[in-house]
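Q: What would this chain look like folded?
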Amino acid sequence: MSRAPALLGAEPLRPGVAPPLVSFEFFPPKTPEMEATLWQTVKRLEPLAPRFVSVTYGAGGSTRERTHATVLRIRNETKLEPAAHLTCVGSACDEIDTVARRYWDAGIRHLVALRGDPPVGERYSPHRGGYAYAADLVAGLRRVADFELSVAAYPETHPEAPSPGRDLDNLKRKIDAGATRAITQCFFDVDVYLRFVDRAAAAGITVPIVPGILPATSLAQARKFATTVPGWMAGLFEGLEEDPETRRLVAASITAEQCRRLQAEGVSEFHFYTLNRADLIVAICHMIGVRGCASPPARAAGGSPLSTRATF
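A: My prediction, written as structure tokens:
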């Protein structure tokens, strides 16, 4: 992939360039107060007409019922297309298949298939009688129904992978098993993503690899979610430890610039990790050309929103 010069976050889109597709990730709320915050976020982001919105699954499968309830509420009370996370952790194959069928029967057509994290403090080991890894889960879900299936990708390599090459082999297995899209772990160095996409293409991976974008509002948050944090980020947050509002402005600027650089390289789809907050996402989407519409697009017969935007 050739390297194009960066665009400034405030530079207008070139005439004729379509706005990018976007999707948003939420986590299921633990309390009534958190549920109210999540629902405010959902309603604030709904006019941006995302391609889909996903709902995560807690470590060790700890949020299965809350994930299910949140997905169904989004399905029933909005025009958004929800995608449910499913993991291998802590369940037999028939249990996971049953959950998947419940989603299908409820009109959910998109799942995010992940190995999943074990409970805190434990090492991952396959559940007896369960799907061992994400590639096995993808293959099993393909047998349940004709879901759209997204999987995870790691531009900076999964922390448990023996090598970058082995990690890429694992992604290829997930695609070969039937996944239709990969969504990356968040990253802050654009070149890391671009090199990863080049390597994936050389390995024969042809599905879209959608960059996962996190508007980190502090250096600590960036380090929590990404494998590496570029040194220049530390300088941008320096001296702002007690100034959260300014940190949010810095986060919006960094993230918009990251997205505009990716757009300059031909990337036309972004998956935002919202942390159940809307303000930064709305601002960043506005700067990359995604503006609110009067009402979200109607769903097509298969369940996905109708869209005239191009995809890559």
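The chain has ten helices and nine strands.
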